[in-house]
Amino acid sequence: MDEDGCSFETLPLGRDGKLGEQIYRRRHLVDAVAVAGGDGTLNAVAQTLIDTGLPLLILPTGSANDLARTLRIPTDLACAVDLLRSGQVREIDVGMANGHAFFNVASIGLGALVTQLVHPKVKKWLGRGAYGVAALQALTKVRPFTAHISGAGWEVEVKTFQVSVGNGRYYGGGTPVEARAQIDDGRLDLYSLEASNLLGLLLMAPKIRHGRQARAAQVRVDACTRFEVRTRRAQPVSLDGEIITQTPVIFTIRPRAVRVLTP
């Protein structure tokens, strides 16, 4: 027990993927869940947080920490822990992809390829810089693919390098999903990179980096509560930096589904 009267139980993060189950079994014994790790670790307990309603304390020790960045959680761990005493509970939305939860973004195409190419050792050495290295590698391998995308009252077939659906504000180590996106606005933000060639894709990069891809002529954007993406061949779908599911995929949103301690 610390000086503020809080007691803690530590659960090691094993490789068996059972952290969520361990938290669920202890749901009646604790008042909050503190998770030390990055976005992938947080994603692993997302469904448990939805099911239990337990408040989440984020201790950002990962490479990208995009959910922490979205919520302005301090990277100094002592300051982050202090949110147990001084923080306020904020209810945030959770995206769902084929029934799998995600906080930040889901990607098909280039983004998913970057996820597959991020090497754990490089990630450990370079932190979020590992995503830049993987992105350069991905650009030499990526090919456009045909996708059928449907939203609220519309459906279109496109040739695209990437389809991304965002719930939070940031992904990939600080890139905005959309400049005005909020994690509690009750909607998902979609963009599709429909460049005619790799050069066109590269020219989009500065706008994408600042969340202004809507200003690019070959980028399709929309925001609503449900999207569906189908592809001719099954494509992997990354959720918060982990390959979790594949196309066809239905994206929905769970408004204000998780409670987080924030500044």
Please describe what this structure looks like:
The structure is a single chain. This protein is α+β, with helices and mostly antiparallel strands and 263 residues long. It has 10 helices and 16 strands. The strands form 4 sheets. Strands 4-3-16-13-6-7 form a 6-stranded antiparallel β-sheet. A 6-stranded antiparallel β-sheet has the order 12-11-8-5-14-15. Strands 1-2 form a two-stranded parallel ribbon. Strand 14 and strand 15 form a beta hairpin. Helix 1 packs parallel to helix 3 and helix 7 crosses helix 9. The longest helix has 13 residues. The radius of gyration is 18 Å and the shape is globular. The relative contact order is 0.19. The model has no long low-confidence stretch (mean pLDDT 88).
Task: Describe the strand arrangement of the main beta sheet, using strand numbers.
Answer: 4-3-16-13-6-7
How many helical elements? 10
Please tell me how large the radius of gyration is.
18 Å
Query: In which range does the helix fraction lie?
Result: 25-40%
Note the main sheet.
6 strands, antiparallel
Alpha-carbon distance between the two ends: 23 Å
Report the β-strand fraction as a percent range.
25-35%
Structural class comes to alpha+beta
Uncertain residue ranges: none
Would you list the SSEs in sequence order as H and E?
HEHHEHHHEEEHHHEEEEEEHEEEEE
In round numbers, the mean pLDDT is 88
- Give the total of beta strands: 16
The rough form would be described as globular
